[in-house]
UniProtKB/TrEMBL annotation, chains A, B, C, D:
Ranges where the Chorismate mutase domain occurs: 1-90
Matches recorded under PROSITE patterns: CHORISMATE_MUT_2
Protein name as it appears in the record: Protein AroA(G)
Record carries keyword Transferase: yes
Keyword Transferase listed: yes
PANTHER family listed in its UniProt record: PHOSPHO-2-DEHYDRO-3-DEOXYHEPTONATE ALDOLASE, PROTEIN AROA(G)
InterPro entries, A to Z: Aldolase_TIM, Chorismate_II_sf, Chorismate_mutase_GmP-bac, Class-I_DAHP_synthase, CM_dom_sf, CM_II_prokaryot, DAHP1/KDSA, DAHP_syn_2
Pfam families reported for this sequence: CM_2, DAHP_synth_1
Keyword vocabulary terms for this entry: Transferase
Length: 358, 358, 358, 358
């Protein structure tokens, strides 16, 4: 007999489910109509006072068995879903999102060098531009190895104000000259909106560093440019925050944005940071932008750069960034973790030999 | 005219809200009735197959404007709320929860010493029991300072198998004898379910350490005893996991459980762990159990024990645990962070002088 | 006989220790003399090439029993200690350091309001300045409660570019007017170096936010001003990085700097961030600057603000910051965590009643 | 003239360096001789009292320019290095260390299945053994796909005592029967030392879970067995702690140990844990043990298992573990993250197609 009873109750449940579906759908339509009216009036769609009033009314008429808290929470979700119908269009239209643009963004650089899409890129160079000799030595080695894009820091954001802060505009000039001599493109970090404009002559890609990932004024200024931007993930930024930081750039009109994972801060002490490898496929899924991995900063250890670069490429990264210095022991920054030229050649050969570098 | 329009749409919205409330409430009642039938039949209340079928049906009849994903998500929440009505009773009946028991649990120890409630407790003693002399020296000092409960490790869970692992049952005996001589109660960590029974004669409070917070076999075994248990928060345990670990003990019948915050693992390097002070008021709110703070392990620094102990008490902690050793420099474990006796006396005086130690 | 043997060996050890001490001390003097010569020549004191050469030489003449690695490591430490003798002066002269300045820095604001030193300060106000009405309502309530400093965000660094970004200069004007009407001082976050100068008329304290803690261009620009600066700890900044960020400001001449702990990012989900209470005594020890605690952002939960504020004061904080809004439910940012005015009054009364607010 | 001066000072520095080297080396020899004497006497080599006395003596005779603190620190390091000479042998002889054993450990299982060395292994199966039908369904699918080792939990360590805790010994029996029917080997987690012995008939590899990584009693008991053990990294364990946990097993005689990275706890919310990919090459370098990666728990997301498995193999992992269930939606644990059989087949094909699975 209980099974008959159970069947009856279940039939009633199905009936209620159907009615709920109808009501919820009708509700959503009404909210959409209200949205249209409000848009005409130029009034914001979300009206917290009205929502609060509706919730109070519902709680007042609630006779159980749900508690007021549950009613509040369920209806908040129903309200939010209706509202999301409108902002969903908004979300669907996040410019960085794969939903907005299905195809991979491919950055086209001078000389038809591309980043993103089918081929991998290796970006290499010293942590800091220190001298013409040092920069030209690296540039020559990179050219010989077949590298197309050289990095080199001129404005160095350093923890201490008394540490070497980079050569500034002079450094950018040295980088440009060395790159031109050896047929390379340049990438360098800019930390002040005021330096973006003057830097345009010297750099082919503007880098925004980890510490500035949420320096929104800098992001907005970079968004006004017609120059590719490489955005580094913050020290402890979530992927969601990272994508929104990229959105700041894109929302101002600059569509040439690349993302680079550089390790996140955790409790582990045997690496400088923890390379968040899962971020690579997730960012590639959520966004159409190229995703690179900085193996130097994410690990802080020369001895595991080869397996980590392979892992990054196997996970779907579009490129790798690595630091190279003619004589790391005497480097003015990041001395311990830069490869010397011979080490770099071995590194690059092994990465290519894996077949993962396309 | 649009305001008339808006008012009409809003009235319709209110109507729908009311109908949704009625339906959701009725739905909950039907689910409760089904629960009663199932209970009689001895069948589990949650039937994932049935839930899946209902969701499929709803998605199939969904004509928009919500996507299938939103419908699925909204109804999952409605289903979950109904189900929670049953397990809410279940949750309401989490034994550690303040909802189950409004009044503070007060642990009554031999000699009518209490932990929890209106007075504060200071638990002190060496990291490890190393010798009779060392233990008696501390015990004498504690008695003189007016301390009632002495800690001392006999089974030491150490990172390396080659580090000093404690004196074992011998250590417990030494601890007991010193405590008896100076009129103190004892607390010591047990790491193996098999040692619980033999330890009962030597310890007044059983400590379960951070590394064993989710050693569920040990928790269950401790739950079978009639002896107070002090449970340490795991190295990277959430508060939710911490409370559920305590529930393992209580669910087996032992209601004499105390919680102790001992710092969580973060990236910060100037402290050994990060003392999660917010955990104190949250645990006190969520649970009726006494909450202590281990200032030694949470900071790993002697020089900030006084302000941290005051902060713990100001945040509502029922007690403090601190490590004291006659000669910390020669200690077999935790050498750097134990107070010597003179330092302990200063520490305890200053904590009392603050008026926060009740 | 072996004890005689042991005693002989130990005597030889003592002798060697003494000789090592003499040599190491002489070595340090020689390095200091070299430093003097180099300073005259205007040559940098640290010469990595020379250090490398010395290490190679030592390793080459090493006949054991130490491995080359150990020799390298020991001598690097000896070299570093000698070098530190010089930079120790440098370190001793970190401007934020307690070694440079023994007495607490006390910030003197208009109307002889002070922060730091013997009295506590309570900074309160809305997350964002939203309207004149909202701001004046809060200001009136704060005046009534005896508060002297009102916060209110005009430039809001928000994760998404599509979220409310604050009223900008208009917001600052509204804040100033409300503050003047009710006899309050103002504090507001500035995110762009270009806004610092225009903001001077409106704010009595410039706040630099957590996301900009290592926006060094902003720090340097704030360092050029003659206006107190409140620097927030970054989301995942170490205390060392935090102090160095403050040093960026002080190194430019602005000595009126305050630090504020606002929670760090951890895995725990029941709080928005983890309030790092140990940072309070450590920062007070290491530095002479006032240290405040932002209880709103560190916890993200209204229900534990009272115990957390008490804990902060018990740990030695010079003040508390808390968010207050006339109607939190309708706030344009941080809706869930702001206190309403009644809640704020209860909060402040209870904090004062504890006797910890001096 | 100053260059002559500089050259003279540098020559003196070189001389002192040489003398320091000689003295330090002689000191080390004396310490070694003392060690020999002490070993004969059965006295511990490290004598903290004696070290303290030597330090006091040095500080007392220190005439600068180093501070007492620096002298203390430098000599502590010299003392530690000498002591390490003895324990270095000890460290060199950490059984898990690559220094102790140069060649990769290869685990040989029944049927000459191997883990470690040249070929990769794929371990798959349900989170929990729930029924004979469920287990046999998976086993059949795994056999068809060419899998050799099936996982399946019988003792489930669950956060709440009221969650499904596994079928216990019954579960192990079901797992064994299904495995035998389809020619598979079995792996299952054991949580209680008392269950190890009875489990030996049912499992070919004993798994020790993340929550029990520092349950040293369980590790020691597993170390007494002649059965391969798969040790999971703890939720927030450092690599150093992980290797020492493995050492607990090996130090008891069981050399058949495998390590498995399963993600660490961080602030990131888009993945369940953060897969620490750098741990793979570091563990392979530091240790000779096989290293696997559990892609299911480290990510908690089905949609990125393929790139993460490829990344793990590219980084040098010896194998992958993944959860498969005939109907994940109805699973009694880990419902959201298990692959169904079709998804598993796609997953395994793609991983093999990458050429990274050897």
């Amino acid at each position: 007999m209980t099974n008959v009873e159970l069947d009856g109750l279940r039939a009633r449940l199905d009936e209620i489910n159907g009615q709920l579906l109808e009501l919820i759908s009708e509700r959503a339509q009404v909210v959409q109509e209200i949205g249209v009216v409000k848009e005409k009036q130029g009034v914001p769609k979300f009206d917290p006072e009205r929502e609060k009033a509706m919730l109070e009314k519902l709680v007042a008429s609630n006779k159980g068995p749900f508690t007021s808290g549950t009613i509040r929470s369920l209806f908040k979700q129903i309200f939010a879903a209706s509202l999301d119908l409108q902002s969903d269009e908004h979300k669907k239209s996040l410019l960085v999102s794969r939903k907005t643009r299905k195809e991979d963004t491919v950055i086209v650089l001078p000389g038809d060098i591309t980043i993103g899409g089918l081929s991998s890129v290796m970006v290499a160079g010293p942590c800091s531009v220190e001298s013409e000799l040092q920069t030209r030595t690296v540039a020559a080695a990179l050219q010989k190895a077949g590298i197309k894009v050289m990095r080199g820091g001129a404005f160095k954001p350093r923890t201490s104000p008394y540490d070497f802060q980079g050569l500034g505009m002079d450094g950018l000039r040295i980088l440009r000259e060395a790159a031109d001599e050896y047929g390379l493109l340049t990438i360098s970090e800019i930390v002040d909106p005021a330096h973006l404009e003057p830097a345009l002559d010297y750099v082919d890609i503007i880098q925004i560093g980890a510490r500035n990932m949420q320096n929104f004024e800098l992001l907005k200024a970079a968004g006004e440019l017609n120059k590719p931007v490489l955005l580094k993930r913050g020290l402890a930024a979530t992927m969601e925050e990272f994508l929104h930081a990229a959105e700041y750039i894109m929302s101002r009109g600059n569509t040439q944005v690349m993302l680079i994972e550089r390790g996140i801060r955790t409790y582990e002490k045997w690496t400088r940071n923890t390379l968040d490898i899962s971020a690579v496929p997730i960012l590639k899924q959520e966004s159409h932008l190229p995703v690179l991995v900085d193996v130097t900063h994410s690990t802080g250890r020369k001895d595991i750069l080869i397996p980590c670069a392979k892992a990054a490429l196997a996970a779907g990264a579009d490129g790798i960034m690595v630091e190279v210095h003619p004589d790391p022991a005497t480097a003015l920054s990041d001395a311990a973790q830069q490869l010397n030229i011979e080490e770099f050649n071995t590194f690059f050969s092994e990465v290519k030999a894996s077949g993962l570098f396309r």
